[in-house]
């Protein structure tokens, strides 16, 4: 029998760890997922017959559409070679447009609409492309109406895209394949997914049957989640009688019972107090670290994004504005700093304006705005020539930076 052919999608050039074993699978043209390194899945389509173990040595190509010839190894482990990493989420030129009916007010407007309806095209998502790898925790941010939730719905298969392609874990989401749905979870902060009049644990039992979770796994997962999120006293209480924070923790726990590989979080901390917000962030960070889950997080609270995400994707009016490191965009927009000085006694404004531009002058309290590189020079000058009671140096808040990007439509 000749060497079988293996087709691997979304390949990136990188090193592979020794001892990779892909495992066995039935013959036939089917898509399978296997693990590389830290649980990075690879989508594999095989023609006739699939060897128990494969040698992938000598692969150096970053072409995502390259066919590789592989050979069967009799009970051996794979030698060191090159790594194959798959994008768990890949969006290419995604667009989602809606036809919105417009009606003039009043009875006459209603009557006219029977004969002639007016529509306008709303471009909720307009030609965006990005990819996310296994284990990444990415912030997906934008103002209200930017297209964030629409994108998440396309990724989770709730709605069809108007054009473009969406691939999640190698599946096309809107096909609603059962194997795909068992590997994702969508948590929407403004939607109730638990039964309102039943205790959360009853809803958990329903999810157990839906996702075909074994009794042992269910008990262990509920116990682990209860420990991490402090749910022990809440699971047997009617959902309607829980506080918002308690209910949101139960909502999140319910979506994690089946241990999804991909988690879509749409404003999970909305309406929560500061203490509960911090606990939710800590849990999300710990869950991502422990399970190497891919998480796409949308939030209007920039503290969520700053604390959890190294990478952000910024979208506005359906257009992709930025995709990269959060630290890079902060660094780019923090070239100026504000220096607030409290003098022992009022200082004349004219003399201070000779030193640096003044943003606010209130006698003893003066605020300067200067370039980052001149901060040290100005502070030394002030401390040397004036009696200073207090001095603080501030960079622009992340909320100010993101708001500036939203308003300017550029990064």
Structure write-up:
- The protein has 411 residues and is α+β, with helices and mostly antiparallel strands.
- The protein has 3 domains: 1-85, no CATH class; 89-329, Rossmann fold (3-Layer(aba) Sandwich); 335-395, Alpha-Beta Plaits.
- Helix content is 29%, strand content 30%.
- It is built from 12 helices and 19 strands.
- A hairpin with a 2-residue loop joins strand 17 and strand 18 (365-371).
- Helix 4 packs parallel to helix 6 (244-255).
Q: Based on CA inertia axes, which overall geometry fits? A: globular
Q: Could you tell me the strand content as a percent range?
A: 25-35%
- Determine Rg (CA atoms, Å): 27 Å
What is the CATH C-level name of the largest domain? Alpha Beta
Enumerate the spans where pLDDT stays under 50 for 5 or more consecutive residues.
Answer: 1-85
Largest sheet: 6 strands, mixed
Return the domain count.
3
Could you please say which CATH topology of the largest domain applies here?
A: Rossmann fold
CATH architectural designation of the largest domain: 3-Layer(aba) Sandwich
Termini Cα gap: 56 Å
Helix content: 25-40%
Number of helices: 12
Q: Total strand count, please? A: 19
Q: What would you call the structural class?
A: alpha+beta
For CATH, the homologous superfamily of the largest domain is named as: P-loop containing nucleotide triphosphate hydrolases
Strand arrangement within the widest β-sheet reads 11-12-13-9-14-15
Mean pLDDT: 77
